[in-house]
């Protein structure tokens, strides 16, 4: 019930299915990123998979953004090695100034205004280090055009579920390509 009572900030009606989480984990870069940002970290379902994947990475810098204060507190308690920002993720570049290697976003994009969504997507693209990757988990099928427009070389995986889960993966071009 905690999910439904927070639907308009989290966008989630239930936990992310394990098969979706496992697929996300397979999409993570093989070599450990130096800096990761997770936007809309919630209770840490995806965070857990990232930490498991890079468990021996003591130099991992991980910034998680979660606007729901209860979730942010739970997240910090569960993952004391990460930095949790109980803050609006749209303006994350005002907090994290340097380019990052991996951005994971599971924000309810369809709940954002068009202006905020456009700003967020552009900020994500601009904040990405050369060779970096973006992973976006979303439900709103109608956002495919907008996401493909911003991340033109992205791949999208569709999971049969209600509500549907879509996963966009994007890799920035390396400087020598």
Quick summary of this structure?
33% of the residues lie in helices and 24% in strands. It is an alpha/beta fold and 177 residues long. The chain has a 7-stranded mixed sheet.
- Main sheet characteristics: 7 strands, mixed
Q: Strand-residue fraction?
A: 15-25%
- Termini gap: 48 Å
Total beta strand runs: 7
The CATH class, by name, is Alpha Beta
Tell me the overall shape.
Answer: globular
For this structure, what is the CATH homologous superfamily?
Answer: Vaccinia Virus protein VP39
The number of helical segments is 7
As for the CATH topology, it is Rossmann fold
Biggest sheet, spatial arrangement of strands: 3-2-1-4-5-7-6
SSE ordering: HHHEHEHEEHEHEE
Q: What fraction, in percent, of the residue positions are helical?
A: 25-40%
CATH architecture: 3-Layer(aba) Sandwich
Number of domains: 1
Low-confidence stretches: 6-11
Rg of Cα set: 15 Å
Task: Describe, in plain words, how this protein is organized in 3D.
- By secondary structure, this protein is α/β, with parallel strands linked by helices.
- The protein has one domain (2-171): Rossmann fold, CATH 3.40.50.150.
- It has 7 helices and 7 strands; from the N terminus they run αααβαβαββαβαββ.
- It has helices at 2-5, 7-10, 18-27, 45-53, 69-78, 114-127, 144-150, and strands at 35-39, 61-65, 83-85, 100-105, 128-138, 155-159, 165-171.
- A 7-stranded mixed beta sheet has the order 3-2-1-4-5-7-6.
- Helix 4 links the parallel strand 1 (35-39) and strand 2.
- Helix 3 packs across helix 4 (45-53).
- The termini are far apart.
- 32% of the residues are buried.
